[in-house]
Please model this.
Amino acid sequence: MSGTELGVVHTRIERADPNAVRDLSAFGVATIHEAMGRVGLMRPYLRPVYQGAKLCGPAVTVLLQPGDNWMLHVAAEQVQEGDVLVAGCTTESEDGFFGELLATSLRSRGCAGLVIDGGVRDVADLEKMDFPVFSRAINAKGTIKATLGSVNIPVVCANALVHPGDVIVADVDGVVVVPAASAPAVAAEAAKREANEEGKRAKFRSGTLGLDLYDMREPLARLGLRYED
Amino acid sequence: MSGTELGVVHTRIERADPNAVRDLSAFGVATIHEAMGRVGLMRPYLRPVYQGAKLCGPAVTVLLQPGDNWMLHVAAEQVQEGDVLVAGCTTESEDGFFGELLATSLRSRGCAGLVIDGGVRDVADLEKMDFPVFSRAINAKGTIKATLGSVNIPVVCANALVHPGDVIVADVDGVVVVPAASAPAVAAEAAKREANEEGKRAKFRSGTLGLDLYDMREPLARLGLRYED
Amino acid sequence: MSGTELGVVHTRIERADPNAVRDLSAFGVATIHEAMGRVGLMRPYLRPVYQGAKLCGPAVTVLLQPGDNWMLHVAAEQVQEGDVLVAGCTTESEDGFFGELLATSLRSRGCAGLVIDGGVRDVADLEKMDFPVFSRAINAKGTIKATLGSVNIPVVCANALVHPGDVIVADVDGVVVVPAASAPAVAAEAAKREANEEGKRAKFRSGTLGLDLYDMREPLARLGLRYED
Amino acid sequence: MSGTELGVVHTRIERADPNAVRDLSAFGVATIHEAMGRVGLMRPYLRPVYQGAKLCGPAVTVLLQPGDNWMLHVAAEQVQEGDVLVAGCTTESEDGFFGELLATSLRSRGCAGLVIDGGVRDVADLEKMDFPVFSRAINAKGTIKATLGSVNIPVVCANALVHPGDVIVADVDGVVVVPAASAPAVAAEAAKREANEEGKRAKFRSGTLGLDLYDMREPLARLGLRYED
Amino acid sequence: MSGTELGVVHTRIERADPNAVRDLSAFGVATIHEAMGRVGLMRPYLRPVYQGAKLCGPAVTVLLQPGDNWMLHVAAEQVQEGDVLVAGCTTESEDGFFGELLATSLRSRGCAGLVIDGGVRDVADLEKMDFPVFSRAINAKGTIKATLGSVNIPVVCANALVHPGDVIVADVDGVVVVPAASAPAVAAEAAKREANEEGKRAKFRSGTLGLDLYDMREPLARLGLRYED
Amino acid sequence: MSGTELGVVHTRIERADPNAVRDLSAFGVATIHEAMGRVGLMRPYLRPVYQGAKLCGPAVTVLLQPGDNWMLHVAAEQVQEGDVLVAGCTTESEDGFFGELLATSLRSRGCAGLVIDGGVRDVADLEKMDFPVFSRAINAKGTIKATLGSVNIPVVCANALVHPGDVIVADVDGVVVVPAASAPAVAAEAAKREANEEGKRAKFRSGTLGLDLYDMREPLARLGLRYED
Model:
């Protein structure tokens, strides 16, 4: 690839293994982000538009032009059962690219939800439908349909690179991108972490300190930490 | 009008037709904004201070000075049953201009709610009272009473011009201003849009794509959109 | 004190009188801030991470380094039943310094909650535990353990100075710091204000205007406010 | 006026008296804002795009759509010698609506400069041409020409209402709007203020304190200010 | 590539054709961005740290951890004459990752400048050295050296994807990324645009309006634009 | 101290040793911040209002109320030759608290400059006078004189605690606070650092890499950094 191409729709994408997607859906974003070695997180300005929104699925990507949602309609045709639509934008734009009608259309195709580096509207309806959306703004201002973007090219969304087919996991803690090829390994690592955390949790609950659980006293002392009355 | 006048209270204003207000109250902000031709929207930094807040009513306007809520008390006397108080400020100020006592006073006069380009406090009480407020900040810092502003002059609030008597509609999607004279026409247009959307919604639900519903394939192809495997 | 000292843990602090803490816990932040003469408020960018979060207790303070939560573990050992952990940072950093495991550890020690000038994660778990946290961001990005800060030194958090033992009160309106020595007097003053407000509230409810209740008409007229039809 | 109208160009506007414009051009924005009684100031996020930029002239107004500069070309035809182009936008948009070619066009018509609630580009060229621009952003991203706005209607720009023909004064301190009808009186008042300030300046220079020059000691003492060793 | 890899340094990268780099250096960022079809622009929060800073060269990329500049030292070894160092960060961090000593080191290797999605310091020295830097903040706060990132992997910087060897062009209008393979074509297209603009410029200078030069009157009329006295 | 006291002016303060102030004035903010162990830095949103502004001197502190500059006049009387006025505010307020007249007054008393967590105006005049100011905003909006703050109490300014008499050093890199008692030691440490840096600078200039100068290769390898062709 030699740069971002406008005006193209890729109709065939490699989605992550459905078993890995299912496995990843059991974990929170913070756990998955740790399991990935702390990469792949979108910027935290993306927020759920209603309380309790969460999603997990392979990405269909779209690159939007500012104040123009034409490509969302083009992308809708590429969405399959369980997909998450991920929309980047060529510039900062907080207009309402997306609302209840498009959500209805996407839902009818089995879409799992939307992540968009822009604004959305009809938020009360989205909550009633329980159609999860993570966006940078809520904005009643509608958009036009005038300029081409692209569908299913690699897009940067909220500073994270997303390839079509990558797994997107989003909850109240944020949005993380798991590359399709890494999805099974990340799910396995996340499971290992959770198992490991369960043991720690029990110890914390019983009053053990992190200082002791993680053997921190010695390295802290070595760096010169001192206690005073 | 030759500019903003300070130190004046207009006691007689032309409120929008109550029937139009009632009609408008049936629609969401996004629909009304579309029905107006996409003008009149306040900037999206105004947010409801509690979940589910919404309001619709004619505006009593007030121009505040920063960190000074004196004019809100002056404005309270001008409020009639169903009015929405709309407060602009001569500069950016996020202090808590408004709280539960003023809400109690306004409620006793039948006030429908507040839209303020500033901060408010006592938010838990406002929610308990279900007194809807849309503000740019939540802030416990109180204000003083030292400087004159004005009541029922045209004010700019969150970048939108509001004349006294204009209809203010606010919900989770934002805040829109409907000029009093346009209220009936906007309500009619909003009803038409909703009826029209119902048909579209049914089609989207049954799987029709926006590409087909809106006949987008041909113009997209003409602009050069191409599909690749 | 001749400046901020790094690498030290003060193990003995003077906590505010527990009776004063209990008394303060009956009031909202806005009331307490008024009772203090309108000082001691943290900047309003600190927000509760879930709806209904509130806390009141003496501060154990910690100074963090950016993206480094080591000192939170050190601080945990200094926390006693009812304490609030207050974390400042040497620079702006919105990473997720704190999550469910640390909350479990703090809860096991009776900690009343956390106020942090940084980010936190595992917010759904924090809500389930009802462990109140006030932060500047929600962020899945974890932190490292590499650099010394300090515990129980005076820290600046969200532009407010906090001494260990000061009472921290936080609710949806914000976060306020009551110096330990002033806690009883502030609680008494807050009670007086609330009693006073009850009388005003009744008058507002019955339709009395602030203009009359506070005798504002004369000073407003003196400044030149005029009424026009 | 019953709201903002899209798709219209008013070709005849009442410009402020040229003598008043000339008189106003002698004063800084802070002085003029004071002379107006502290109203009419745009929000301070508008900044000069190069050092030393300043302008003064009657407004030709334009309402833009986000990411669309078509109406700037329409507005150019309405500009006369000495006019300032003032551009509001129906939503927040920081794309580069304006650059060197449009500046060349406007300059050829005698345009005094641009104030825009959006982004601009070719800033190095604008500086070389000494074509003063005040904007909310600098951004290389260009715009499209797809949607109608309006020219010479009242527009809100950076939260200030501007009528065509009003005088716009801008310098490093910000941008202020002087209603056309008030321009002579404001210029006179500004001159009076400057004369008055010259006397104060001399006293300050010789060491007189504001405390004494403005007789502040007594009111401060009355409010309870006390001095301690 | 299946995601971002940490802890790796790629020592061999394909730099863009030096002739194309030289050709591109003749154009401004706005022109190049147009020549690329309006993609590849970094977010406009990146700003030059001193007036007149500009740069053009192939990218050596580095992925930093927040508040940690260790990888900049690792990257320095990979820099060749004329290269631009481009630094992304795994999270938002505005500390001072870079100052005069590192600039001296990079300069000794012929480095053309730095683009960093973070903060820098010693700005007065950078200006004296005329070492161009584009950053999101100026901040005296130094960083630590504790955690691995990577060098010469694809990085996202200010929301733009950069591959090692891509050409980075930056000036007062912003920062644009030209994929290495496209550099010659983009340079050619930029030259064509500039030639084309020269003709337009002459016409604008002589008073021709964009309305006529671009034949806009007819499409505007078709959309319904109307002129009123 | 049991909290922030309003309505008091302390007329006697302990200024830092003048020799230490003079010594500190030879160093940049970044160097001094390092010499202090990386504490005491104000938040980087404080910026010089003109290019080249810098200052160094003992602090006279003032706590302002929002939109109210009365206490600056009170503070002026407490300023001695070489002092820096440092102004915090009880809340966020970006109005123009300070302009050319107050600068003239302060200059006549030998004041070295102003650091203010608020806005200022008359910036062109301040530059002409070369009266250095570091502020969070430039804003033509003036302030009132209605409410008491305090002078020469400890204030928090841009998240840093300042005691009267502390040394304030500010330049393009930011603003740092050196506690009075530490000033001589910090100046000595800064000198040591600069001497040390001179040696490093020479090595960097001759092409030595930080990797070798700081012996980083081994710890990087130990953490697992690997090089690939």
Q: What stands out?
A: Residues 183-205 of chain C form the longest helix (23 residues).
